Amino acid sequence: MNDQDIAKLVEQKVAEQLATQEARAMTIIASKGTLDWAYPVLILASTAAAMDLETSIFFTFYGLDILNKKKINSLKVPPIANPAMPVPMPNILGMLPGMTAMATMMMNSWMKKANVPSLKELLDLCIEADVKMIACQMTMDVMGVKREDLIDECDVGGAASYLAEAAKAQINLFV
User: What is the distance between the alpha carbons of residues 113 and 42, in angstroms, rounded to a whole number?
Assistant: First the structure.
């Protein structure tokens, strides 16, 4: 069985499971704001919404950068202490000037070659699909993030806002 067959089987099983449930919802906590951590959040959310799951994302700590109007197009991939980097290199090289820019350029290139939408395009898909996006108020206060820094389509709330969504969801993820 190849990867595509496995993916189709998993998608079919998830669809069958979801069809048997009355309420269908998923939440994600987005806690990291790097390019390599933003993609899974937005891909999972947009896919869940496309599968008719009521979908919510709670953006906290560095995850707020995904909602930041000025930062969404400039998220980076830090190569240091990232053992999953496909280009083998000792960690010490990741500290050299320019390595973060190089790793970011490489990942953006791979995504483009694979026809993966940009983060901004995925964020727009989430907005179109009515994914509920909640910016953590406490994190905004702690980090000095202003409401006007964030996209207009997000809500601002605290842990209770996330928990209200999570309580009705069958799928809760922490990324």
Answer: 19
- Assigned token pair, 115: 């026809």
Domains of the chain from N-terminus onward: 24-174 (3.40.1260.10)
Element holding 37 (H helix, E strand): helix 35-50
Rg (alpha carbons) of the chain, rounded to whole number:
17
CB-based contact 29:173 (threshold 8 Å):
yes
Residue 154, Cα to own-chain centre: how many angstroms? 14
Cα dihedral 29, 123, 164, 23 sign: negative
pLDDT in tens, the chain (175 residues): 787 888 787 788 777 766 665 558 999 999 999 999 999 999 999 999 999 999 999 999 999 999 999 999 999 987 765 656 666 665 555 555 666 777 778 877 888 998 999 999 999 999 999 999 999 999 999 999 999 999 999 999 999 999 999 999 999 999 9
pTM of structure: 0.80
